[in-house]
């Protein structure tokens, strides 16, 4: 894992000396080679596994390295902003406290929605998103009790047999599934014959009226 991608809180005169010679981030598990160069432990291991990268960095894979204990302690105390400060988090504190405590519980940390919309949502808003906002959440039709995705709900209502429907002629409200029989059996059928509402209705009315 490369170095800490965190922003120092305020000015820090020695910040350049605390950066990895490879990834240029704040050193993680700092080590130092015989030439005095500092690396993240993982960056060093990656560099010596590639002759081209080792050559580019000017290092000898066989040289001795040492844990830089003093620098590790300095980095632990480094004043930093939360990694989610651009999302609105106002936490500030020591780097060690950020990594060991705050990072895991920060409400501004974004996580990918698990329902399928692929959006990254701040942790503090994730529960609401998955329960009330995600188009891939499961909802139940209030009329027929079918379960479906929220994104399909409006289309479902246009065809749901139990959804309320108002007759355009007598203005009676009824479930959509009863509309055909209503048109055939009620007095408003005489108006429908003139309007051409439905071929089946027209045929029934034509025969019934003895036209």
UniProtKB/TrEMBL annotation:
Q: What is a single Pfam family found in this protein's UniProt entry? A: zf-TRAF
Q: Which InterPro entries match?
A: Znf_RING/FYVE/PHD, Znf_TRAF
Biological process (GO), any one: regulation of canonical NF-kappaB signal transduction
* Keyword list, A-Z: Metal-binding, Zinc, Zinc-finger
The stretches annotated as zinc fingers (TRAF-type) lie at 102-148
Q: Which GO terms describe its molecular function?
A: zinc ion binding
Q: Does the keyword Zinc apply?
A: yes
Q: Start and end of every TRAF-type domain?
A: 102-148
Please indicate if the UniProt record lists Metal-binding as a keyword. yes
SUPFAM superfamilies named in the record:
TRAF domain-like
Q: Which PANTHER family match?
A: TNF RECEPTOR ASSOCIATED FACTOR (PTHR10131), TNF RECEPTOR-ASSOCIATED FACTOR 4 (PTHR10131:SF94)
In its UniProt entry, what is this protein called? TRAF-type domain-containing protein
Q: Which organism is it from?
A: Amphimedon queenslandica
Its lineage reads:
Eukaryota, Metazoa, Porifera, Demospongiae, Heteroscleromorpha
